[in-house]
Design a protein that fits this description.
By secondary structure, the protein is α+β, with helices and mostly antiparallel strands. The chain is built from seven helices and four strands. The protein has a four-stranded mixed β-sheet with strand order 2-1-3-4, covered by helices on one side. The N and C termini lie close together (12 Å).
């Protein structure tokens, strides 16, 4: 369920990801492990309300990447989300600095993975995907 889907304001940033992508779920779990202060909420691209949450993103672009939706409604997509995401996380400033310093490289790298995410997902062991799913489920069940 999308947090506060009936409101335009979301108290925490929301990381929106592809539920059908094992690599995406595994990556989200890595972010959650880093998110010790629990600053992020989660949503999937497939759930009701995602289109409204991502209304500023062209409909044909929404499923092509993950998105970070900030409390003020600003949406960062794909590689452009790395710097603001890292800046939210403990000790993420160095990663955010690098990502801001080479945005073209971040976007290129993200596109390479996103365009091949189903192939890349096959490289993530089933046990790692299962652990990721458990971690995501635990986080999503928290208040």
């Amino acid at each position: 369920m999308i947090p506060n889907s009936s409101d335009e304001y979301h108290p925490r940033p929301i990381l929106v990801y592809d539920l059908d992508c094992g690599f995406c779920r595994w990556s989200v779990a890595r972010v959650l492990a880093w998110d010790k202060d629990r600053v992020l909420d989660l949503a999937t691209l497939q759930e009701p309300g995602a289109a409204e949450l991502l209304s500023s993103v062209p409909a044909d672009e929404r499923m092509k990447s993950s998105h970070l939706v900030m409390p003020d409604g600003t949406v960062y997509s794909g590689g452009a989300a790395l710097a603001p995401l890292a800046a939210l996380l403990p000790a993420g400033a160095p990663v955010a600095f690098v990502a801001r310093s080479v945005p073209g490289l971040m976007n290129w790298g993200y596109r390479q993975i996103a365009e091949n995410r189903m192939k890349v997902s096959k490289l993530v062991p089933a046990a790692a995907k299962a652990r990721a799913d458990e971690q995501i489920a635990r986080r999503r069940s928290e208040p």
